[in-house]
Structure formats: structure tokens, C-alpha cells
Amino acid sequence: MLPAEIAPADLVHTAHLPLADVALRLGTAALLGLMLGLNRELRGKAAGLRTHTLLSVSAAVATLVALELYYDLGSDGQGNPPDPIRAIQGVAQAIGLICAGIIIQGRGTRVRNLTTAATLWMAASLGLACGAGLYGIALLSGGIALALLLTLSVVERRFFGDKEEEDATD
């Protein structure tokens, strides 16, 4: 049951950003996360399409919510505005924990899964940029990340030889 002061129309729009802008930000985050996840999926990694896409979109959501709260809450009356940067800090801590788990999950004495952890971090960063509406940064950095993922594995194999099977496909 909805409280009387909330009209159904209030549930389908945001307070300060037009719904079309929110959809564009979330859609761009999903697309960029999907592109990174596709690279990991094609290499047979556990963190693939769904993980990268959901992580990127969730970071965008955290950013959008922080921005909306920033606009809604304004100042505390003492000249202290709320700090939306704390949302970025929270995303960074959460993704750090996830990435650490992925790295530790590798067995043996060798460090593994660093590239997958790095692409998850990039997916979160792309989501933060999309959530903030910084499309130029998101598209440029997403394109650079994808180009690096696609080309550096070939360069590593050609000039540095094949590592163990796990590392060669990372």
C-alpha cells in the first residue's frame, strides 16, 4: 500500500533528472559493462557478461541515487552540503572486496585472475561515470579498456611466450 502523499506518477520519474536521461545513463553503463564482460566470457572466465554488466549498472545506480539525494537534501542549514563522492567511495570499497575474492580464489602459489579483477574494477568505474552523466569519459575509457584487452593478450603471447594455460587466456 502506498502512503497517501506518494502519487503513482511519482514512482516513474526522478526528482531532478529526466527519466530519459536516467535511462540513457543506465543503458550506457550496461552496454559498456557488457562489452567488457563479453571479452571475459569469450576467454572462459567465471566473471563474464552478467557479472560485468550488473556491476557497471549497479555502480551507475549508486551514482544516480547519490546525485538525487544530493539535490534533495541540499545543505544541513550550516553550510554543509551532502557529499555524493561518498557513493564512489562505497562502490570502490565493495568492488575491492569482490576483486580480492576473485584473485584469492585462484589456487596454488601463483597470483591469478588479475585481469578479470581489473575489468570488474573498470566496469564499476564506467558505471560511476555513466551514472554521473560523464559520457565522454565513459566511452573513451571503455574503448581504451576494450582495445587493451583485445590487443595486449596477442602482444603478450607473441613477445613474452605462452604462460600457463590459465594465464594465457586471462
**Mean of pLDDT:** 79
**Overall shape:** elongated
Query: How does the helix and strand content classify structurally?
Result: mainly alpha
- How many beta-strand elements? 0
Q: In oligomeric terms, what are we looking at? A: single chain
What order do the SSEs take from the amino end to the carboxyl end, as H and E?
HHHHHH
- Using only CA atoms, what is the Rg? 19 Å
Distance separating the two termini: 49 Å
Tally of individual domains: 1
| Fraction of residues in helix | 55-70%
Number of helices: 6
**Model regions low in confidence, pLDDT < 50 over at least 5 residues:** 164-168
Largest sheet: number of strands, sense, barrel closure: none
Beta percentage is: under 5%
Notes on the structure:
- InterPro entries: MgtC/SapB/SrpB/YhiD_fam, MgtC_SapB_SrpB_YhiD_N.
- It is a multi-pass membrane protein.
- Pfam families: MgtC (PF02308).
- This protein has 170 residues and is an all-alpha fold.
- The chain has one domain (8-168).
- The chain is built from six helices and no strands.
- It has helices spanning 19-42, 49-73, 85-105, 114-131, 135-160, 165-168.
- α1 (19-42) packs antiparallel against α4, α1 packs parallel to α5 (135-160) and α2 (49-73) runs parallel beside α4 (114-131).
- It is elongated, with a radius of gyration of 19 Å.
- The relative contact order is 0.15.
Task: Summarize this structure as a short list of keywords or feature phrases.
disordered C terminus; mainly alpha; 170 residues; cell inner membrane; Protein MgtC; cell membrane; transmembrane; elongated; MgtC_SapB_SrpB_YhiD_N; single chain
